[in-house]
Write a structure and sequence with these properties.
424 residues; alpha/beta; Aspartate Aminotransferase, domain 1; Aspartate Aminotransferase, domain 2; 2 domains; seven-stranded mixed sheet; three-stranded antiparallel sheet; binds pyridoxal-5'-phosphate
């Protein structure tokens, strides 16, 4: 049942050639008319997308034709949402939590989030600094809308989550990529960061642990960013959505540097930590005056996040955490297995990621581009994965594999990749 739903989700985002749902005459006519009648605003030409959904649709199309596919493309835990959280959501619906809530979120959830972030980041967060939104993504969108004018520059990680660059372009700002190199264990070079800062820099985006590399920014590197940001009063959007998916040491946020909590927006959420991608629940932590502005963006767009989802979120934070610990342990086993397997394949070099649930192997030794190899592996080996170039120009030469799949499937995938590459 879940598979059917995902199929439709990917399919909606896919243009017609690979569509699995036969278009009805009506839907075709509607589509056709829409194109003729609707002249899109120029800003739509600047909007990017997330390729994972397109590859998912392509892979589903192949599956529908009888090909066996192992899915390593989509960035979501393969585990179900823990039962206590589902139960809290169901109870909330049964108890009538089916109405609007305050735009910034219900107080019990904002209180729970404020305590959680105060504890885990060792800072003092007031519930008025919390804005609850449908997923982590809206915080990126809202922060950029609220802070950036046309022509402002935004420094963002590259390779990085593709929505950063898409949204920076969409709001009319200029994306300034900060290269994350394998030689720096997918962190950045501090001198390079300094060289990218200008009088126009309006925001620096950080993501640690990172998608797509699994890299974690060291305390020293965080301190370097803080140094630059404080000296020039540049706000930081710190995407900490994988903060609980960490395999070594303690999570560190840029807010650990005195002065930084006052100029940081922390983005975090429930999608990854509690396997709640479909519930749509995330949040931002920021200074109160900015929180009020972001809340206005919520009023203008979503009104509020679904009430029962927020109630489930209270249970997620305040309830037992064993499911999260078990999930991270399972991811660690899979990470070890996939990294060892990839490094045995000629032409592939893979670092051991410190967080999230992705590996980002270098494939330059195969002599093929990232996209060629991703397409080849899908067609020839039935492995759905992403070209590193989907994550920005500095992702060329790499592939991204999500190891949110069973150990059995990962072993099978490794064998198929090895065999397919031997036939290249
Ligand atoms: N930030 C990063 C780095 C991500 O990888 C993702 C999802 O893949 C998100 C944010 C968005 O998460 P959500 O599904 O909660 O909007």
């Amino acid at each position: 049942m879940i598979e059917d739903y995902r199929l439709q989700m990917g399919d909606n985002l896919q243009s017609s050639p690979l569509s699995l749902l036969p278009p009805t005459p009506n839907s075709k006519t509607f589509h056709h008319n829409k194109q003729n009648l609707m002249n899109l605003a120029t800003r739509m030409t600047r909007l990017g997308t997330e390729t994972a959904f397109e590859v998912l649709a392509k892979a589903k199309a192949l599956e529908a034709r009888g090909k066996e596919i192992i899915h390593l493309e989509i960035g979501e835990p393969d585990f179900d949402t823990p039962a206590n959280i589902v139960e809290a959501g169901v109870q909330a619906l049964q108890q009538g939590h089916t109405h609007y809530t305050p735009a910034s979120g219900i107080l019990p959830l904002r209180e729970a989030i404020a305590s959680e972030i105060s504890l885990t980041r060792n800072i003092s967060v007031h519930p008025d600094q919390v804005v609850v939104v449908p997923g982590g993504k809206p915080i990126m969108f809202f922060a950029l809308l609220a802070l950036c004018n046309a022509g402002d520059e935004v420094i963002y990680p590259n390779p990085g989550f593709p929505i950063y660059e898409s949204m920076i372009n969409f709001v009319g700002a200029k994306p300034v990529p900060l290269r994350l190199g394998m030689e720096n264990e997918f962190s950045f070079d501090a001198d390079e960061l300094r060289s990218l800062v200008s009088d126009k820099t309006k925001l620096i985006i950080l993501n640690s642990p990172a998608n797509p590399t699994g890299g974690v920014i060291s305390d020293e590197d965080l301190a370097q960013v803080a140094d630059v940001a404080l000296a020039r009063s540049i706000p930081v959007l710190s995407d900490e959505i994988y903060s609980r998916m960490l395999y070594d040491g303690e999570f560190a946020s840029i807010t650990a540097t005195p002065g930084m909590p006052e100029q940081t927006i922390i983005l975090d959420g429930f999608s990854k930590t509690y396997a709640m991608t479909g519930w749509r629940l995330g949040y931002g932590i920021m200074p109160v005056d900015l929180a009020q502005q972001i809340t206005k963006l919520m009023v203008n767009s979503n009104s509020c996040t679904a009430a029962f989802t927020q109630m489930a979120g209270v249970e997620a934070i305040t309830g037992p955490q064993e499911a999260v610990i078990d999930m991270v342990q399972a991811f660690r086993r899979r990470r070890d297995l996939i990294v060892a397997g990839l490094n045995e394949i000629p032409g592939i070099k893979c670092l051991m990621p410190k967080g999230a649930f992705y590996v980002f192997p270098n494939i330059e030794g195969t002599g093929r581009s990232s996209q060629e190899l991703a397409d080849y592996l899908l067609q020839e080996a039935g492995i759905a994965l992403l070209s590193g170039a989907c994550f920005g120009e500095y992702g060329e030469g790499f592939l991204r594999l999500s190891y949110a799949n069973s150990e059995e499937n990962l072993l099978k995938a490794l064998k198929l990749i090895k065999e397919a590459l031997a036939r290249l």
